[in-house]
Design goal:
This protein has five helices and no strands. It has 135 residues and is mainly α.
């Protein structure tokens, strides 16, 4: 990314990028704010999406734990182990995103405005909050 260009790389379909692109097509004013703002919108969408997933997962884990104490069964343990693996993967992804958001909010990124740095810092802080204590 620089002050004129935003390049995204993805192996498969990206809900976050597609959603942001649709927003940009519907409101061309967004593109006039520059690629850093578009990157922020993608980042915000990703963060909000992961937050919702973690919130749902957290309530499911609470229910599974209660069920395990009341009526332990192999299928519940298997589900808990599966979620543990997914949470480890999610933690790695969130750590990677935090590093990006932190770099984008630093003053060393000349193509990101002061307001843009504030936006990326907001996203960084949002990912830093302990939404799910199991991560």
């Amino acid at each position: 990314m620089n002050d004129q260009l935003l390049v995204t790389v993805r192996k498969d379909h990206s809900t976050s990028i597609d959603h942001t692109w649709e927003m940009c097509k519907a409101n061309t004013q967004i593109l006039r704010q520059g690629p850093a703002h578009v990157a922020y919108l993608i980042s915000r969408f990703i963060t909000n999406r992961y937050t919702r997933i973690i919130t749902v997962l957290e309530s499911r884990l609470d229910k599974l734990e209660d069920d395990m104490f009341e009526h332990p069964r192999d299928n519940l343990l298997e589900e808990l182990v599966g979620y543990g693996k997914n949470l480890s993967k999610l933690k790695r992804i969130l750590t990677y995103h935090q590093n990006i958001f932190s770099r984008m909010s630093s003053k060393t990124q000349s193509f990101v405005s002061k307001h843009g740095r504030h936006e990326f810092n907001d996203v960084f802080e949002h990912t830093e909050r302990p939404v799910c204590t199991r991560i």
